[in-house]
Amino acid sequence: MKTIEQLLESKNIRVTAMRLLIYRFLAEKKVAVTLSDIENAFEKADRTTLYRTIKTFEENVIVHQIDDGTGITKYALCEEGCNCDIKNDLHLHFHCNNCNETICLTEHKIPQIKVPDGFVSENVNLVVKGICAKCSG
């Protein structure tokens, strides 16, 4: 398994203290987080730096964006080896209506969906809503 530094360098991302901190923060979370969650965790950090770091991570397939229907974009780390390819790497997300957490269910892949001729798929997002194991048990 690569270290965080090796992962960033392999994607031609300059290793900075803030990037390491944000990556570790995301790695510790077992749920998707909002930009506000990141801002609250790093209150003394410049908001623009946090936003640029997330965008850099997203552009380089370190995190993926999740639209869970709440109107607030969330982010989660990609699995090792993921390239967020619409044909191979998309997975299910679960949004808990009780605790409002969104969880990646990476072991549950979204099947490839064939669209009619002339249509071009750019993103597929499948969110199941309900009560998570933590809240139901």
Structural write-up:
- This protein has a three-stranded antiparallel β-sheet. A three-stranded mixed β-sheet has the order 5-4-6, with no helix packed on it.
- 20% of the residues are buried.
- 31% of the residues lie in helices and 20% in strands.
- It has 137 residues and is an alpha+beta fold.
- The chain contains five helices and six strands; from the N terminus they run ααβααβββββα.
- The chain has a single domain (4-130), classed as Arc Repressor Mutant, subunit A, CATH 1.10.10.
- One of its GO terms (biological process) is regulation of secondary metabolite biosynthetic process.
- Keywords: DNA-binding, Metal-binding, Repressor, Transcription, Transcription regulation, Zinc.
- GO terms for molecular function: DNA-binding transcription factor activity; transcription cis-regulatory region binding; zinc ion binding.
- Belongs to the Fur family.
- Pfam families: FUR.
- Largest beta-sheet characterization: 3 strands, antiparallel
- The string of secondary-structure elements, in order, is HHEHHEEEEEH
The proportion of residues forming helix, as a percent range, comes to 25-40%
CATH superfamily: Winged helix-like DNA-binding domain superfamily/Winged helix DNA-binding domain
Helical run tally: 5
- Number of domains as seen in the coordinates: 1
Q: Summarize model confidence as the mean pLDDT.
A: 89
- State the separation between the terminal residues, measured CA to CA: 33 Å
| CATH architect. name | Orthogonal Bundle
CATH class annotation: Mainly Alpha
Strands side by side in the biggest sheet? 1-3-2
Number of strands: 6
Beta-strand share of residues: 15-25%
The helix/strand class is: alpha+beta
Pfam family, one: FUR
InterPro entries: FUR, Fur_C, WH-like_DNA-bd_sf, WH_DNA-bd_sf
Cofactor: Zn(2+)
Keywords: DNA-binding, Metal-binding, Repressor, Transcription, Transcription regulation, Zinc
